[in-house]
Amino acid sequence: MKTRGKVKTGKNGQILVERFSPIRRVEHWIVAIGFILLVVTGFPQKYPMSELGHFIVRIFGGIENARLVHRVAGIVFGVVSVLFVVVTVGFGACVVAPLAMLFAAWPIVTSIVGAMQANEGKPPRVPLTIRIIS
Predict the structure, then answer these.
(1) Model confidence pLDDT, tens digit, residues 94-110
(2) Is 62 part of any domain?
(3) 34 Cβ partners below 8 Å, 6+ apart?
(4) Less crowded by CB within 10 Å, the N or C end of the chain?
(5) Is 0.70 surpassed by the pTM of this model?
């Protein structure tokens, strides 16, 4: 199998594209299974008098077991969801974006600092200029 980045050629010449990494697929299945468990175990707690609720409670061996599974599934679902947001959004917002915006935002930062200093009566500093010689 030849590999060119995330595009692979299969044995029969078929082009395969890997859309998600293995860790993202595992994360997806953990969240999906957790969500389904939360719905199934939460139903008899929301509707305790329904026939479906009684059936689900019997499957889990009692309401105590259903509630235990519900709590564990909720914790796993929450932790994985928060980790996804922290890692994905946090990495993009805290690492990639600031590095890209740092140089673009620096003149704005120096202007704000200069304006604050001028409001306090301090003499303005001469801005640092960078000349690019090609």
Answers:
(1) 665 655 565 666 666 66
(2) yes
(3) 73, 74, 76, 77, 80
(4) C
(5) no
Give the residue-averaged pLDDT of 20-42.
91
| Total domain count, the chain | 1
- Name the percent of the chain in helix, strand, coil, to the closest 5: 70, 5, 25
Residue labelled with tokens 């707690």: 45
Reported as a single tens digit per residue, the pLDDT across 120-129 is 777 666 555 5
- Residues spanned by the domain of 51: 23-119
Considering the domain boundaries, does residue 128 fall inside one?
A: no
Q: What is the pLDDT of residue 2?
A: 55
Residue 134: inside a domain: no
Residues 45 and 67 sit within 8 Å (Cβ to Cβ):
yes
- Residue 16 belongs to some domain of the structure: no
Residue with the two structure tokens 């604050």: 116
